[in-house]
TrEMBL record, chain A:
GO terms for cellular component: plasma membrane. Signal peptide: none annotated. One of its GO terms (biological process) is cell wall organization. It comes from Ureibacillus thermosphaericus. SUPFAM superfamilies: beta-lactamase/transpeptidase-like, Penicillin binding protein dimerisation domain, Penicillin-binding protein 2x (pbp-2x), c-terminal domain. Its main location: membrane. Residues 57-202 form the Penicillin-binding protein dimerisation domain. Residues 247-557 form the Penicillin-binding protein transpeptidase domain. Gene3D superfamilies: 3.30.450.330, DD-peptidase/beta-lactamase superfamily, Penicillin-binding protein 2a (Domain 2). Keywords: Membrane, Transmembrane, Transmembrane helix. NCBIfam families: spoVD_pbp (TIGR02214). This is Stage V sporulation protein D (Sporulation-specific penicillin-binding protein). The chain crosses the membrane at residues 12-32.
TrEMBL record, chain B:
This is Cell division protein FtsW. It comes from the Bacteria. The keyword Ribosomal protein does not apply. GO terms for molecular function: lipid-linked peptidoglycan transporter activity. The keyword Membrane applies. Pfam families: FTSW_RODA_SPOVE. It comes from Ureibacillus thermosphaericus. GO terms for cellular component: cell division site; plasma membrane. It is a multi-pass membrane protein. The chain crosses the membrane at residues 12-31, 43-63, 75-95, 145-178, 184-203, 261-290, 302-330, 336-357. Keywords: Cell cycle, Cell division, Cell shape, Membrane, Transmembrane, Transmembrane helix. GO terms for biological process: cell division; regulation of cell shape. InterPro entries: Cell_cycle_FtsW-rel_CS, FtsW/RodA.
């Protein structure tokens, strides 16, 4: 065949068309990649080029109302590695593993990966400063120490069940750390190195510093000193009574600021994984829901006075030890009854039939309305994680028996913080304030306030006059009644005990109680409300009056100087003597008296003289304090 | 007024020359950093490539003026010679292994790839046989397939999948042009697909390449690495590119940027428009090559020129397709532009043969 066939020429053209088709496809594809996907690929390429060595910024601190640090950060570097920069990765892994005492094989696998920059985590995450220095001394090629932090708790377990903790990447996992994570979270800074693939600096691109920022400071309403007192008392009670759990709240009744919030047992937030989730997930003062017992009688009392249904000092009530309501025999805690008593004594004695009477006088609908007005049946809005709402009787289920038991605090379930909120309103002049724990959130770099909480008045539930009567009645509970163990001279503590049987599977558990006491001081102008509940104390006498009341008394006594409560006896109800109480007297003023004069007086005390001279210059204890009979008064003499 | 044939010839040579110069320029830009890191102290790639280009032009000059290459019988001997080389390259000690395949024969500093040569001799020998088939007679011969399959099998032993692929595809284009029945071609394509599946099934790394082609981002540091890095070079360049010498991906992100992926760097530095310009130059080269084929008066000349041009065109398309992500990564260089002495000399040898054939006066 010498001449070229036309078929062949046609076939060549077909091949050419195929080629043209490819060229068109190629140009379209180029257009897509270079023009349409330009921005997206540019972003990806930047990531590809930059090598970031992170400089962690500090997570926000959590501080108390006075700016005392509760949770802060501790330097704990994290190692980074650029595999391309090291020729002997095996050796490097060996060196690092021996310093950090971690598995060499795993570390090697990580270091020998195909990435440009490997974060050596978890093996070399948050190492100690000393380890970092030691490793830097080894001068391992391609090993970089990145600034990093871990959470530091200067007070250890203190507040742990409220504050919560952070996880592997310092993200908040529980408590305040979790709830305010958005504010506390920091943004890491980093040096962005534009390098070749091996990490050498590129000739015509400048490195960048990517700005980070620190997390914001969360300031709580908590007072660390108050908290320490409260937790000390709770921990002692836990030991003394071998209790299952314990909890406490201290609140300023005039603002709703929580001063202390404690749950026991506690845990170490840096080793949270060692305890059960029930421990770190449950903030008892807001989570725990139980029958309040007698502390709830304050609400019935307040309602009855407000409605004008009782004059507590003048009206009498006879307690025969029980009341029959719709064929149910509702017993007083005192089997033989309290007999004839004023309603003030009904309160002092925590007499159940007396409170049933008060509840009946108020009426079921009104009582239920008061209970709701006092904030029961719904979360307080304290914005503390895991708050429960409690359980009330519905209007339909609120029969006479339910009405009667509710009057003295049985058959319903409430949270501790609801009780504190309600009692605060009952004694502060009738104003129901929303409890809160975060006073403000401040940008730690600029000092700018990001969020600030102010006291929030929800509503007025009773009048000032009623509140005054409630205060008086509760002060007399402490002076004369079931709260006597909380009595502290000069602090005018008022309060109410509570003892509730625990409920399990819908039945009362025999011999298993939650004992509580809610107290406040001073009763003429309350500045603090303290609630303490001990769950399942093991003791021969399990009553709020014997276990919880003394704790609240001790707490108020110890925090009085911290929160500025003045010792003032004016108008104070004197504690009544009861058999078994120590005999006490007030200390006479002996300063300025002559020694021989004193010797003539017949005091029931031991007198010890110190120094020489004829006149008393000073004395201990000071005048007007309470001293047990047979106690000793020290006199310091001079001329 | 110059004849049409003369115009085609001039366009053909000029486009080939411009492409080669562009090659040297971008080997300078793309390969300098790589060679400084990996071949410290050695002569930079662009100087070597310049020397290769001078040598290649000398080869071209000699070949294009040697009538011996018009002679069909020359190609029979050259075909046998290239087969011998293909056998020799497999013998340890003679053949050199690079990047996992034994495809080089070296004498001193000179190394050649017999596969490059066999692609040409196979096409030329086939063209010769096909031109002997009398008009109207059945074209299909078993002999043709043997001529293609023997070198293919030998190259697969190295192994060098890219070369076999180019050899088979360009041979089949030749058979197609030589009036092989269309029905048979449908069968060929089915067979080819089956063969590809077979190849993929026998070597898992090929399957990985296909996977990486379909979605390179699922393993951007492993099997999708080259594809991803290539896209990261091309994408940010936009319409006009970052400018000459301004590539970032050449800083060791793209492996061997002076070689298989040089077109990525070109696209990165001179952008979409520059890329179209290069593609345009290839089109011009192929267009003038086809023009030369159509100007031929003998069927041997026609078959020879069109199959050689088709081979270069196919190889260029394969490389560009890989770079822009149209085709899975195959490891084929870009004719004229990629760094490499053998390939540059072979390609100018081909240009020389084509010019020599079209120089024949009847």
């Amino acid at each position: 065949m010498k001449w070229i066939s036309t078929v062949s020429k046609k076939r060549l053209r077909i091949v050419m068309y195929g080629f043209i088709l490819f060229v068109i496809a190629a140009i379209v594809r180029l257009f897509i990649v270079q023009i349409i996907q330009h921005d997206k690929l540019t972003e990806l390429a930047k990531e590809n080029w930059d090598r970031e060595i992170p400089f962690a910024s500090e997570r926000g601190e959590i501080v108390d109302r006075n700016g005392e640090v509760i949770v802060t950060n501790k330097l704990a570097p994290t190692l980074y590695f650029m595999p391309a920069q090291n020729d002997n990765i095996e050796q490097a892994a060996k060196q690092i593993a021996s310093v950090l005492k971690v598995d060499e094989k795993k570390l090697y696998e990580k270091m020998n990966s195909k990435s440009y920059l490997v974060k050596l985590a978890p093996e070399a995450k948050n190492i100690t400063y000393e380890q970092a220095v030691e490793l830097q001394g080894l001068k391992i090629d391609g090993l970089y120490t990145g600034v990093d932090y871990v959470r530091h708790y200067p007070y250890g377990n203190l507040l742990s069940r409220f504050i919560g903790f952070t996880g592997y990447d310092t993200q908040g996992l529980a408590g305040i750390e979790y709830q305010y994570d958005k504010y506390l979270t920091s943004k890491d800074a980093a040096i962005r190195l534009f390098t070749d693939a091996k990490g050498n600096t590129l000739p015509h691109v400048d490195d960048e510093w990517r700005e980070g920022h620190q997390g914001a400071t969360v300031q709580l309403t908590i007072d660390l000193e108050v908290q320490q007192v409260v937790e000390r008392e709770l921990s002692q009670a836990m030991k003394k009574y071998n209790a299952e759990q314990a909890l406490a709240i201290a609140m300023n009744p005039n603002t709703g600021e929580i001063l202390a919030l404690a749950s026991y047992p506690t845990y170490d937030p840096s080793n949270f994984e060692k305890v059960k989730p029930e421990i770190y997930n449950r903030n008892l003062p807001v989570w725990m829901t139980f029958e309040p017992g007698s502390t709830f009688k304050i609400i019935t009392l307040a309602a009855a006075i407000e409605e004008g249904k009782v004059d507590i000092e003048k009206e009498n009530f006879y307690d025969k030890g029980y009341t029959i309501v719709e064929d149910s025999r509702l017993r007083c805690w005192k089997r033989e009854g309290h007999g004839q008593q004023t309603f003030l004594q009904v309160v002092e004695n925590s007499c159940n039939p007396g409170f049933i009477e008060l509840g009946q006088r108020v009426g079921p609908d009104k009582l239920l309305q008061y209970i709701k007005n006092f904030g029961f049946g719904e979360p307080t809005g304290s914005n503390i994680a895991g708050e429960a709402s409690g359980i009330l009787f519905s209007k339909e289920a609120f029969g006479p028996v339910e009405h009667a038991t509710t009057s003295f605090g049985q058959g319903i379930a409430v949270t501790p913080i609801q009780q504190v909120q309600a009692v605060s309103a009952a004694i502060n002049g009738g104003k129901l304030y929303k409890p809160y724990v975060v006073s403000k959130i401040v940008d730690s770099e600029t000092g700018k306030i990001i969020l600030e909480n102010q006291p929030e008045l929800k509503r007025t539930v009773i009048s000032e006059q009623t509140s005054e009567k409630v205060r008086y009645a509760l002060e007399s509970v402490v002076a004369n009644g079931s709260g006597r163990n909380a009595y502290r001279d000069g602090l005018r503590i008022g309060g109410k005990t509570g003892t509730a049987q625990k409920v399990e599977n819908g039945r009362y558990k025999v011999g298993d109680y939650i004992v509580s006491f809610i107290g406040f001081a001073p009763s003429n102008n309350p500045q603090v409300v303290v609630y303490v509940a001990i769950d399942s104390p093991k003791s021969s006498v399990v009553f709020g009056s014997t276990i919880a009341a003394p704790i609240v008394g001790q707490i108020i006594e110890d925090i009085a100087p911290i929160i500025g409560l003045e010792v003032n006896r004016e108008g104070q109800l004197e504690k009544q003597y009861r058999w078994g109480d120590p005999m006490t007297e007030r200390v006479p003023n002996l300063v300025g008296m002559k020694v021989d004069e004193i010797m003539k007086l017949q005091y029931p005390f031991h007198i010890e003289m110190h120094g020489t001279g004829k006149v008393v210059k000073s004395q201990l204890p000071e005048p007007d304090n309470i001293i047990e009979v047979d106690g000793t008064i020290h006199l310091y003499l001079g001329d | 007024m110059p004849s049409l044939k003369f115009t085609y010839k001039r366009l053909f040579i000029i486009s080939a020359f411009i492409l080669s110069i562009i090659g040297v320029i971008f080997i300078y830009s793309a390969g300098t950093y790589w060679s400084a890191i990996h071949y410290e102290g050695e002569i930079p790639f662009y100087i070597k490539q310049s020397i290769y280009l001078i040598l290649a032009l000398i080869v071209f000059n000699i070949v294009s003026n040697m009538p011996i290459f018009h002679n069909e019988k020359t190609w029979i001997s050259l075909y046998i010679f290239s087969l011998v080389l293909l056998v020799l390259v497999l013998i340890p000690g003679i053949g050199l292994e690079r990047n996992g395949s034994q495809s080089w024969i070296g004498i001193g500093p000179l190394t050649v790839q017999p596969a490059e040569l066999v692609k040409i001799t196979t096409l030329m020998y086939l063209s010769f046989l096909l031109s002997k088939v009398p008009n109207g007679e059945r074209v299909v011969r078993l002999q043709h397939f043997l001529i293609i399959l023997i070198p293919s099998a030998l190259i697969m032993l190295q192994p060098d999948f890219g070369s076999v692929f180019i050899l088979i595809v360009s041979s089949f284009i030749l058979l197609f042009i030589a009036r092989y029945p269309i029905k048979l071609y449908v069968a060929f394509i089915l067979l080819g697909v089956a063969g590809l599946i077979g190849l993929i099934a026998t070597a898992p790394y090929r399957l990985k390449r296909i996977e990486a082609f379909i979605d390179p981002w699922q393993d951007p540091l492993g099997s999708g690495f080259q594809a991803v890095q290539s896209l990261l070079a091309i994408g940010p360049a936009g319409l006009l590119g970052h400018g000459f010498q301004q590539s970032r991906q050449k800083f060791l992100y793209l492996p061997e940027p002076q070689n298989d992926f040089i077109f990525s760097i070109i696209l990165e530095e001179i952008g979409f428009l520059g890329g179209c310009l290069i593609i345009g130059l290839f089109c011009l080269f192929i267009y003038s090559g086809i023009g030369l084929a159509l100007q031929a008066t003998r069927s041997f000349d026609f078959f020879a020129i069109s199959s050689l041009v088709a081979m270069i065109g196919f190889q260029a398309a394969l490389n560009i397709g890989v770079v822009i992500g149209l085709i899975p990564v195959t490891g084929v260089t870009l004719p004229f532009i990629s760094y490499g002495g053998t390939s540059l000399m072979i390609i100018w040898f081909i240009v020389g043969v084509i010019v020599s054939i079209s120089n024949r006066t009847v």
